[in-house]
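ugh ok so i messed up the first submission bc i forgot one of the chains. this is the corrected input, ALL of the components this time, i swear. 602 residues overall. if the numbers dont match what u have on ur side tell me asap before i send this to the collaborators (the ones from the other lab, u know who)
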Amino acid sequence: MKQFWKSMLKSPSGVIGLVILLLAISVALFGPMLFPNSPWRMVQRPFLPPFTLSTVPLGTDALGRDVFAGMIFGARVSLLVGLVSTLVALIVGMPIGAMAGYFGGKVDDALMRFTEFFQTIPSFALAIVLVAILQPSIYSIVASIAIVSWPPVARLVRGEVLSLRTREYVQAAVVTGQSNSWIILREILPNALSPVIVLASLMVATAILLESSLSFLGLGDPNLISWGYMVGAGRTVIRQAWWITVFPGVAILISVLGLNLIGEGLNDALNPRLSREGR
Amino acid sequence: MLSFVAQRVLKGVIVLLAIVVLNFFLIRLAPGDPAVVMAGEAGASDQVFVKQLREKFGLDKPLPEQLFIYVKGVLTLDLGFSFRQQAPVAKLIGERLPATLLLTLTAFAISLTLGILFGTFAARFAGTILDTGITVFALIFYAMPIFWVALMGILLFSVTFDWLPSFGYETVGANLKGLAHAVDVAKHLIMPAMTLGLFFMATYTRMTRASMLEVKRLDFVKTARAKGLSDAVIQRRHVLRNALLPVVTLAGVHSGTLIGGAVITETVFAWPGIGRLMYDALLQRDYNLLLGVFVICSAMVLIFNLVTDLVYRLVDPRIEFAS
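and heres the new structure output, hopefully the right one now
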């Protein structure tokens, strides 16, 4: 563990990414407490330009709502959706991949055809259709993002399990009569985790992009303000008020960039063989 | 070769059928009794009319039979009827398909060309400031949501500089012919295609760079160098050619994302393609149209995957056509 942090902190992208993520998480956790303006309430005249009033530093939107407050509250939705949907995708993808890799043969065939099927369907189009049919809410958004993002997890875990199950310590567990589920859960999966963690960090980034795109199209949870929704709402008045679309977009850009950088840092730290150093 | 193509086509058809079946159940999941919804959309919801609709669309039959009717319909390109637009779904999609193909293929060409170019440069000058610059640039584009890039493009090139039109496929009412028309369409196409292309350009840049650095270390490159070939020839003929394989694979995997990006791009730029049609269907909760577009998108992805698979085998002779 110490070794891990050491190499993580040695990679510049990992450090920058960690700083950005910590910043985003603290904004999401504490921002709303420190900044009591409701993102839905009218606080000033509409179309107030940014940097004119210190109480509304980033100006107001077409309905006089505080853009800065929206960004702070939006951080919650983006991070929450990103993390939870990735978690759900892992919960779905890991057992499927593990079973396919461990049992092989017909089970592997069936599960992999199923996975390929989901990988062929255009993911964003499927997410749109699912949210539209299930009605937009934070639950349907999380579910749809998870449904379109689990296949890579299953494929990755399958590959790892395939190579691990012939190892001697796994054979030893088989000989001592351990049950299949015990072997998968206690012997194989813990050793297959590193690449899954790298993938997961990148999936959170993709999930945030997906959520913002859905909200932008008007498929966000109507009760929660999100960055994508703000950009979508500012879109029609972009000629009069650039700041309504620019600032929330920057927030998305920075968070996604941070997560991608963490992914690179994790990759360098957890898979030293694949490290980009020394090439 | 032929049997390989036949096999892949057969596999594609099976997947497409599965998607159609999935689609059927998604329609049933949509809120409300379809007949009542349709009647409401047609502006008359008395019992007789609802019953008529049920019979007309086979909604009174058992589910398996309904499924059979639906699949048969899709196979004969009957994707149902859009009550909102008062036209068959297949006709609406057919009208919009060329615009989407123009947009996605242009974006694809831009992203692949620029991506390979930048990636090659970054790998050639690995470790220098040029490499860092390209890498940072790619990372940033990779993290930007497409809708935001689109709006920033409009803000910069339409609002501030007034260089490019911000929406549509052609100048409305200009009635241009021949070359003038082509130039007009191209002007409208630049921004949407660049927007859609930049995200993918970023991935191809990173992939080409990583892959070229990987190939560079292999033995056959050393052999080429030992033979006294010039650096340019080695880079082009030995390194790049082999480094492109994973890029082609990635391009195939990305086709679905490309279509998804087209929905966003077409929405922002009011580009009259099927992505925009999907957005309209979404706004009006026109489920028949929405799911019709979904099936067509899936079919396009399948075709694209098949093509990249074939290209892959042409580029890399080591892969045999036999399964």
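quick check: The radius of gyration of chain A is 22 Å. that seems consistent at least. Chain A touches chain B at residues 116-117, 119-130, 132-135, 205, 209, 212-213, 216-219, 228, 231-232, 235, 238-239, 242, 245-246, 249, 252-254, 256-257, 260-261, 276, 279 (CB under 8 Å).
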